[in-house]
Amino acid sequence: MAEKKVILTYEGLKKMEEELENLKTVRRKEVAEKIKEARGQGDLSENAEYDAAKEEQAEIESRIVVLEKMLRNAEVIDDDEVNSDVISVGSIVKLYDFEFEEEVEYSIVGSAEADPMNGKISNESPVGLGLIGHKSGEIVMIETPSGELKFRIDEIKK
Predict the structure, then answer these.
(1) Which one of 1, 20, 77, 136 has the fewest CB atoms closer than 10 angstroms to its CB?
(2) Model confidence, pTM
(3) Ramachandran category for residue 111: left, alpha or beta (phi over 0 → left; psi -120 to 50 → alpha)
(4) What is the distance between the alpha carbons of residues 34 and 96, in angstroms, rounded to a whole number?
């Protein structure tokens, strides 16, 4: 079975590569040192610090595997290919939200980069999926788990 492509912006790719490098070069050493110190305290069967360090080590190794897999399957969206006439992954959109009567701005990114609290919504989310392919000036109705949302697309940029 083919592995799912991970759509990333160039910025997202760089962040993932930096996180992977940090995990491999810095965090692994820090945890190895914690384990070494905990071993030096004697009986490992009742050593909470040792258990916590081993758990942290497992989490780091698991995250490394996930990041390496994502980077292997990464498809980077080239900024030059992002069309500012139509919403696509890589677009930054200004919308008027009719429900809250306010203007909002979202960056449409791949699911691996999504961070809704910081205005980065996934192309696979109901809102992201509902916006893709639309043009500036259009009114869009989007069905979400919490009900139907209505937006006016005011601006699309790269």
Answers:
(1) 1
(2) 0.79
(3) alpha
(4) 51
| Cβ partners under 8 Å of residue 49, min gap 6 | 34, 37, 38, 41
Q: List phi, psi (to 5°) of 46.
A: -120, 30
3-state secondary structure labels for all residues of 84-131? CCECCCCCEEEEEECCCCEEEEEEEECCCCCEHHHCEEECCCHHHHHH
Q: Which amino acid would we find at residue 37?
A: E
- Digit-by-digit pLDDT tens for the chain (158 residues) are 567 899 999 999 999 999 999 999 999 999 999 999 888 887 777 788 899 999 999 999 999 999 999 999 999 988 777 778 999 999 999 999 999 999 999 999 999 999 999 999 999 999 999 999 999 999 999 999 999 999 999 999 98
Assess contact for 103 and 95: CB atoms under 8 A. yes
Identify the residue whose tokens are 């788990």: 145
The helix or strand, by DSSP H or E, that contains position 143, with its residue range, turns out to be strand 139-144
Residues 6+ away with beta carbon under 8 Å from 10: 76, 77, 78, 79
